[in-house]
Amino acid sequence: GWVHTVWLFPISGTNNCTLKKVRPSQRTNDKPHEAWVGLKKDAGDIITAHCSCMAGLGETCSHVAALLFKVEAFHRLELGKASCTSLPCVWNQAFTKQTKPSRAHNIPFIKPKHGKSEATLAEERRIVNRRSFESEIPKVGKNLLDALHTCMANSAVFSVVNGYVEDTAINGFITDEHDVNLPKQLFDLYQHCHSELPESRLLVDTTFSKLKVTQLECDFLEKSTRN
Questions:
Q1: Is 179 left (phi over 0), alpha (psi -120 to 50) or beta?
Q2: Which of 129, 156, 172 corresponds to the end of one domain?
Q3: What pLDDT score was predicted for residue 172?
Q4: Which of 22, 61, 71, 135 could be 55's S-S partner, Cβ–Cβ 3.0 to 4.6 Å?
């Protein structure tokens, strides 16, 4: 039959009594039978049993057996214990507080090898080998830079290398015998008194009158920017 909720009545001493209503398996619309069993607490021995059905008068029937099966399954499956998530902080006891911070480039963002294909593992090994190869590349020494500077002092790379910037700037300009300067830059045309003039008057009075480039300045600019 279908066993309903089992009730436990503790008795003084070492004995217990369990009471249960069991619905008949064939006549489901009939009134459920009431079965009860007397048990020992420590050993689980059956002292006596009874059921309100006809066979239960002899203390042995399928309803009593169903009650005992349910009690045994309840104990075997540990259904009476509280789940780990119902207890306070039990599910989080494995959390560790000794984790030390690390830089991102030192953290391997890869999955465990379990379940990976050979192609994926080969790609990971290739990346690791490439990183080890890059770490073995020696840095450019001063002897190599000196040799390159002797061959090509005006190379653009020396304009950003410490120790060669000034030499590159000096070698990049060709001094004229007349010591001609470069043309004036645009910020040399600024005068504070012109700030009060209208735009049309300012263009006429200042820009075209002061923006003059001589032939010597043109020749020197061409030589300075050659190559």
A1: left
A2: 172
A3: 46
A4: 61
One domain, residues 145 and 184 = no
13: left (phi over 0), alpha (psi -120 to 50) or beta: left
- Do 23 and 39 share a structural domain? yes
Query: Shortest CA distance to 68 belongs to which of 44, 101, 96?
Result: 44
Amino acid occupying residue 70: K
The total number of structural domains in the chain stands at 3
Whether residue 112 is contained in a domain is answered as: no
Looking up tokens 């950003």, which residue turns up? 160
Residue 197 is assigned to a structural domain of this protein = yes
Q: Which of 42-46, 139-143, 208-212 has the highest mean pLDDT?
A: 42-46
| Mean pLDDT score of the chain | 70
Please state the pTM of the whole predicted model: 0.34
Burial 143-178 (b: 16+ CB within 10 A, else e): eeeeebbeeeeeeeebeeeeebeeebeeebeeeeee
Same domain, 187 and 165: no
Q: Express each pLDDT in 120-133 by its tens digit.
A: 667 767 776 665 54
Contacts of residues 221-224 at CB distance under 8 Å and 24 or more positions apart, as own/partner, are 221/182, 221/183, 223/174, 223/176, 224/172, 224/173, 224/174, 224/182
